[in-house]
Amino acid sequence: MPLHPICHRAIHASLTNAQLAKMGPNAAALLAVEDVGRFVRWVSGKPPDFHAPTRTRK
């Protein structure tokens, strides 16, 4: 599934590949992750070509 680069970076800033693999293709589980859900709500109002720096993993 195509994913905007800013979204890809935000997801990986919050979750490891192992955590993502355990979730499988479950968008609801991904959005339930607090940092990811907050990011998606924030970025949803931005234009499609929007880019911003992404926090690194904690």
Topology summary:
Elements: H1 5-14, H2 17-23, H3 27-32, H4 34-43
Helix pairs in contact: 1-4
Description:
This protein has one domain (1-58). It is 57% helix and 0% strand. It contains four helices and no strands. The protein has helices spanning 5-14, 17-23, 27-32, 34-43. Helix 1 (5-14) runs antiparallel to helix 4 (34-43). The protein is globular, with a radius of gyration of 11 Å.
List descriptors.
single chain; about 60 residues; mainly alpha; 4 helices; about 55% helix; globular
Which structural class best describes the helix and strand composition?
Answer: mainly alpha
* Overall pLDDT level: 86
Work out the radius of gyration.
Answer: 11 Å
Element order: H for helix, E for strand: HHHH
Number of helical segments with 4 or more residues:
4
Helix content: 55-70%
Number of domains: 1
Q: Give the oligomeric state.
A: single chain
What is the number of strand segments?
A: 0
The global form is globular
Unreliable residue runs: none
Give the strand content. Answer: under 5%
Q: What is the CA–CA distance across the termini?
A: 26 Å
Quick summary:
With 58 residues, the protein is an all-alpha fold. Helix content is 57%, strand content 0%.
